[in-house]
Structure formats: C-alpha cells, structure tokens
Specification:
With 98 residues, the chain is an alpha+beta fold. The chain has helices at residues 2-8, 24-40, 55-60, 87-96; strands spanning 14-19, 45-50, 68-73, 76-82. The chain has a 4-stranded mixed beta sheet with strand order 2-1-3-4, covered by helices on one side. It is globular and about 30 Å long.
Length: 98
C-alpha cells in the first residue's frame, strides 16, 4: 500500500492495471501491455495490481470491474477506463499526460 502511494507520486505517468488472475479480458490485455511497455520505454511506468490480493486498494479506487486502468500523475488519477482497450489508445493517453 505504501509502495503503491510512492509509485503513483511520480512525475512520469503511471498506468495501473487493476486485474484478476481469473479474468479472461485481463489475460487478453497482458500482451498489449507488454508491447506498450517496450514502446513507451521509461517515459511512463506500468504497474499491475491484483484486486484479489489488494482488496483495500481496489476498494479505495472503487474498482468494480476488471480490468480497470487508471493513469496517475503526481499522485492524481488523471484518466480511467474499465474493460479491454487497444494499446494505441493507451499510448495516446500516456502521451497526452506526459
């Protein structure tokens, strides 16, 4: 929890993927996020949070469906999306908030 708070304080955008291991769409997003990671390099961080292991974080950010993506900048949530999304769209959102 403390580590998470430190992570999202970054000046670089931090894309957080709230997921569950049993979630099909979450599994489908995995290769998309891996490709995005190599495309954006160190311009942003990508973090994955398992909602079943971190229920308090899921509750704090009102995660009601997985996957849910939240983009943080300087500790503030600046963008949010629930459900599958293309890597291209995610990259655009990160670039707009860089």
């Amino acid at each position: 929890m403390e580590k998470f708070k430190e992570l999202i304080q970054s000046e670089k955008p931090v894309l957080v993927d709230f997921f569950a291991t049993w979630c099909g769409p979450c599994k489908a997003m995995h290769p998309v996020l891996e490709a995005l990671k190599s495309e954006i390099g160190d311009r942003a961080h990508i973090a994955k949070i398992d909602v079943d292991q971190h229920e308090e974080l899921a509750a704090e950010y009102r995660i009601q469906m997985v996957p849910t993506f939240i983009l943080f900048r300087n500790g503030e949530a600046v963008w949010r999306h629930s459900g599958v999304i293309s890597g291209k769209e995610l990259k655009t959102v990160i670039e707009q908030n860089s």
